[in-house]
Amino acid sequence: MNRSRLKTLLFASSAIFLAVALISHPKESLKASIKGLHTWWEVVFPSLLPFFIIAELLIGFGVVKFLGVLLEPFMRPIFRVPGIGGFVWAMGMASGNPAGAKFTVRLRNEGNITQIEAERLVAFTSCANPLFIFGAVAVGFFQNPYLGIIFAISHYAANIFVGLVMRYYGIGDKTRNKEEKTFFSLKNAFQSMHETRLKDNRPFGTLLGDAVTSSIQTLLMIGGFIILFSVINTLLSLTNITDVLATIIKILFVILHLPEAFSIPFISGLFEMTIGSQLISEVKNAQLLQQAIVVSFLLAFGGFSIQAQVASLLSQSDIRFSPFLFARLLQGIFASLITFIIWKPVYENGLTGQNNSMPVFLNFDNDVYLHILQFFTEYGPIITIASLFIYVVIYGRRAFR
């Protein structure tokens, strides 16, 4: 049997299995679907929408080109991507997955970066946002705000290390492979911004409408994946598939001196990192360091739910998914190692020990992210419904114009 037929058989078998499982467990599937829906419309949609809209406006007004010229002397020598990639990296860190992929695809389709550069860029701009790391995981699951600092350091430092590794990806590619000397020039940056705005030439109302519709369409796709993988995760558990996979993971955990009780939560986290992180925080008789190491891996890996979202976005361009998947595994390993290395000096001796001489940037109100998360949980549905209503109005007016 050739590879193509084997792939067809695998996809068909998986679809049939899910259909049968849905029919066999309708009540549990409905609960999982509702849980995924609540996650999307309470937190994901209202927290990501402003970032997406503002980013679209920044691209349209040429601000991204302006930043690209300024950041070229930094991004090109270190990560072998254009300076414009600095904008993607910043938006990815601020708003979380899959913002990095969305804006990388946008830049690629507009011809601002090459295919290889896009694959390098999307590899290290995929990360969770601070709200999720501090509010949901550290405070919400572990009731320990100091863990948020550990997770954030390991997570974002791992992003940098992945970027340094991926700079050697596609090094033999002939397209824009020659390193050019670039210099900081505010005048050239402003000129590029002005030319980009003139080239776009859309009125502000049209630009804003396009930003809203494009952002909401992306978020609707994200919501579909969140609900789908919430259901898949539940069905795998109900059909004991998770238990079977966990027996394989137990062998790895024994070698790494990690509790076997992490195996089932870890498998769940590979599909949906939020669920996996919560389950790991609930494991009894486990060292906090061990929990932190595994959760750091899941946060960096992202879960198949986020990877499916990214794959869907990348399919709109010629950017290949395999480098992104490799980078997620690499980031997971880096994040786990960094957590292990900094645990004693930062967490035990610095945050919870006698030594309180921590850097100023780490001394902040740890409850602020929890308050933001609670705000989105309370008012998120209202923001989501209002935004969807605006989207329908804009889309309807354009359709019947």
From TrEMBL:
UniProt KW Oxidoreductase keyword: no
Keyword tags: Membrane, Transmembrane, Transmembrane helix
Signal peptide range in chain numbering: none
Record-annotated membrane-spanning stretches: 47-71, 83-101, 121-142, 149-169, 216-236, 248-271, 291-313, 325-343, 368-394
Keyword Transmembrane among UniProt keywords: yes
UniProt-recorded name of the protein: Sporulation integral membrane protein YlbJ
Domain Nucleoside transporter/FeoB GTPase Gate: 43-141, 219-314
Domain of life according to the entry: Bacteria
